[in-house]
Amino acid sequence: MVGCGYWGSKHVRALRSLDAVGTVCMIDPSQERVDSLRRSFPGLESYAHLGQALDAIDAVVIATPPSTHKPLALEAIAAGKHVMVEKPLATSAADAREMIDAAKAQGVVLMVGHTFEYHSAVWSLREMVRSGALGDLYYLDTARLNLGLYQHDVNVLLDLAPHDISILNYVLGAQPVSVECWASRHAHRRLEDIAYLRLYYEDPKVVANVHVSWLDPCKVRRVTMVGSQKMVVFDDLAAEERIRVHNKGVAQPETEGDLTQAPMSYRYGDVVSPYLVFNEPLSIEDEHFTDCILTGMRPLTDGENGLAVVEVLEAAQRSVQQRRAVDLSEVRGGLDVPELAIPRQANRSASREVL
């Protein structure tokens, strides 16, 4: 486990619960962080730097600042180690492609930590789209807001938007063809702390809006999908009923031009909360990583999956700088991304955790 901060500590707990994992080593230059984690997990080995541990390990999970993802991953891959990198895979599409090429050359697993693609609520959203339960999709909207946490090396786009871009790509089973982005700096002199993205998809033809912020009084983790027949809201902060399907909508009257009628008719129906599989996404993700190592199976969130998100982020950054819509072909490198799928459920019960 490279990086023993907030996410690293969660990975340590999840990895230690897996039968396939014999030993978890902590790799972090901060002795304070190592000592803090060791109080919860006594007896764990620790190293200050990745190079010191390479002879003792088979695989690496990297949960460090994004600017360090590429050098750490390449160091591990060069030593023949399997690698999972927390989001985003890299800070540029060129770096992500270099990591993918290195993993292919060494024949090792490269996986990205797009945790929400292992979330039962997101699986349910994808099934609603695939089954046509919502009718024709009008638009999608996501919000990921909070007061902080400000990062040292990346802006709010690279910190928070990977979650929502990953969710949208997964739910729609597609990648956007163009991106518009507006971002601004307020409290921080150098890094943008609020951003709005608009992603244009062709198949299905739909627009998705993403709002991310480090500078908001309310913590929000919400995905809204609006269709011609139904509307659905996924609130990841809800203790219960994380998904609520609203049987409501609007329609134009059959006779147009009659000014005595209301311009639209409104339909109201039941609100239903479907049953969700009880799972902890991080545990499912870590178990899938070990399965891929042991069986040679291609990860559901492999390097190409991570690259698809990084390409959107790079296009969004370019859109902010040049104040225009950016076509993904401008940053895309021509790699084919396989169809995304739902992983098998874990064979054990896992505790619920709000991500």
Structure write-up:
- With 355 residues, the chain is an alpha/beta fold.
- The protein folds into two domains: 6-116 and 281-302, 3-Layer(aba) Sandwich (Rossmann fold); 117-272, Dihydrodipicolinate Reductase, domain 2 (2-Layer Sandwich), CATH 3.30.360.10.
- It is built from nine helices and 16 strands.
- It has helices spanning 6-16, 31-40, 50-53, 69-78, 93-106, 120-131, 156-172, 281-295, 303-322; strands spanning 25-27, 45-47, 59-62, 82-86, 110-113, 137-147, 178-184, 194-202, 205-213, 215-227, 231-235, 243-246, 249-251, 265-267, 271-272, 326-327.
- The strands form four sheets. Strands 15-12-11-10-6-9-8-7-16 form a nine-stranded mixed beta sheet. The chain has a three-stranded parallel beta sheet with strand order 3-4-5, with helices on both faces. The chain has a two-stranded parallel ribbon with strand order 1-2.
- A hairpin with a 7-residue loop joins strand 11 and strand 12 (243-246).
- Helix 5 packs antiparallel against helix 9, helix 6 packs across helix 7 (156-172) and helix 7 (156-172) packs across helix 9.
- The longest helix is centred in the C-terminal third of the chain and has 20 residues, at 303-322.
- The two termini are 19 Å apart.
Summarize the structure.
With 355 residues, the protein is of the alpha/beta class. The protein has nine helices and 16 strands.
Kindly list the characteristics that best describe this protein.
355 residues, alpha/beta, Dihydrodipicolinate Reductase, domain 2, 9-stranded mixed sheet, 9 helices, 32% helix, 25% strand, Gfo/Idh/MocA family oxidoreductase, NAD(P)-bd_dom_sf, Gfo/Idh/MocA-like_OxRdtase_N
